[in-house]
Design goal:
Elements: E1 15-21, E2 28-32, E3 39-42, E4 45-50, E5 67-70, E6 72-74, E7 80-84, E8 86-90, E9 96-101, E10 115-120, E11 126-128, E12 134-136, E13 141-149, E14 162-172
Parallel strand pairs: 1-14
Antiparallel strand pairs: 1-4, 2-8, 3-4, 5-13, 6-7, 8-13, 9-12, 9-14, 10-11, 10-13
């Protein structure tokens, strides 16, 4: 007869991501898509919650030491949706280059934040960065998602969210 040791630990790994427009981007619109409760739109800024409010997977959040790509929301019944998680719309009169910028890597208390990037999800998935932005033509929109890298991130106390700010940056583009 053998014996085995079993230990269990539970950690809260829910995450909220707040996306806001850069002050220099008044003609940029952000619109959430899907009905899975992963996102809300308030005053032109998006807030995401993982897992979503209507996801019935029993999950307590994101795992540690993992890279997630959320390209789509769910349909509100836990089924994958085909529309992007959100869209970035160019309402201006010139093409713009778009990428995400995480203003800081730790909380005021010193907790390490996950690395969050914006994904272009139409066609081949692309992480958007200042060195590799994407151009959105005038009057067009880009289907987008989020990449969340939890490697090296501490868990949060039960009942608390880890809140990550993300700013969408833009510059006018010379490309059409």
């Amino acid at each position: 007869m053998g014996t085995s040791a079993f230990s269990s630990s539970q950690a809260q790994r829910e995450i909220q991501i707040a996306i806001q427009r850069d002050d220099d981007s008044p003609y940029l619109a952000l619109e959430n898509r899907g009905a899975g409760g992963r996102s809300t739109n308030t005053g032109g800024n998006l807030r995401f919650r993982f897992p979503g409010a209507f996801e019935s997977t029993g999950a307590t959040g994101l795992g540690q030491e993992t890279v997630y790509q959320f390209e789509h929301d769910t349909d509100g019944n836990g089924n994958a949706a085909t529309n992007p998680l959100f869209v970035i719309q160019n309402l201006g009169t010139n093409p713009i280059q778009v990428w995400g910028d995480q203003p800081f890597e730790t909380t005021e208390e010193g907790t390490t934040l996950p690395d969050v990037d914006i994904l272009a999800v139409e066609g081949e998935t692309q992480v958007l960065s200042s060195s590799d932005p994407i151009v959105i033509p005038t009057g067009s929109e880009l289907g987008a998602g989020l990449q969340i890298d939890t490697r090296g991130v501490d868990t949060t106390p039960a009942g608390e969210f880890l809140s990550v700010p993300l700013v969408i940056r833009t510059v006018e583009s010379t490309a059409d």
